[in-house]
Amino acid sequence: MENDTYKTIVKPNDEVLFKDKNSKFFGYAFPVKNEDEVKAHIENLKKQHHNARHWCYAYQIGFEEPNLIYRANDDGEPNNSAGMPIYGQIQSFEVTNVLIVVVRYFGGVKLGVGGLINAYKTTAQMALEACKIVTKTINVDFVITFDYKNMNKVMRVIKEKNLNITNQKLELDCQITISVRKKDASTIASIFENIYEVEIKELDN
């Protein structure tokens, strides 16, 4: 049985702050769906904290290999002392479609690699703890195309299976887009494939 749920955050957290030897680490977590959103959040934080020294981050988008996109960035801190500890918290909270940015103001005292790892890890953890984490289902979207005369057949299945309609265009030729839990997707697709004169195809998300 393949897993078709994932955990993510609903909205950005309230800013968190971790201090160590005069250095300040501000932590932010954002829900993201693509890398453009990642870039936009980082650019905004760079404007907001234009006097900071480092804007280190990690993100993960997607649900499973090979479609998982993730990245960790040390932004000038020693190798693997910032991005990977942040990414480690994304993994340990088992969340995805999330970006965590930790903004550092240098306080004049070097923390050493161990101190940095601890600071970035702790700030990332605090940012995620400040978020509401929810479980969502991984859905597959299908578009069903049919003539108006077959409307009742299609709607009967949608009603019986309690399917979620996300879009519909009901004219002479009708199109309805439905969103189905991944684990039910092939069953639902085959029901519609077996209805005469009704066409169903999966949408690329």
TrEMBL record:
<protein>
    <submittedName>
        <fullName>YigZ family protein</fullName>
    </submittedName>
</protein>
<dbReference type="Pfam" id="PF01205">
    <property type="entry name" value="Impact_N"/>
</dbReference>
<dbReference type="InterPro" id="IPR001498">
    <property type="entry name" value="Impact_N"/>
</dbReference>
<dbReference type="InterPro" id="IPR023582">
    <property type="entry name" value="Impact"/>
</dbReference>
<dbReference type="GO" id="GO:0006446">
    <property type="term" value="P:regulation of translational initiation"/>
</dbReference>
<dbReference type="InterPro" id="IPR036956">
    <property type="entry name" value="Impact_N_sf"/>
</dbReference>
<dbReference type="InterPro" id="IPR020568">
    <property type="entry name" value="Ribosomal_Su5_D2-typ_SF"/>
</dbReference>
<feature type="domain" description="Impact N-terminal">
    <location>
        <begin position="21"/>
        <end position="128"/>
    </location>
</feature>
<comment type="similarity">
    <text>Belongs to the IMPACT family.</text>
</comment>
<dbReference type="GO" id="GO:0005737">
    <property type="term" value="C:cytoplasm"/>
</dbReference>
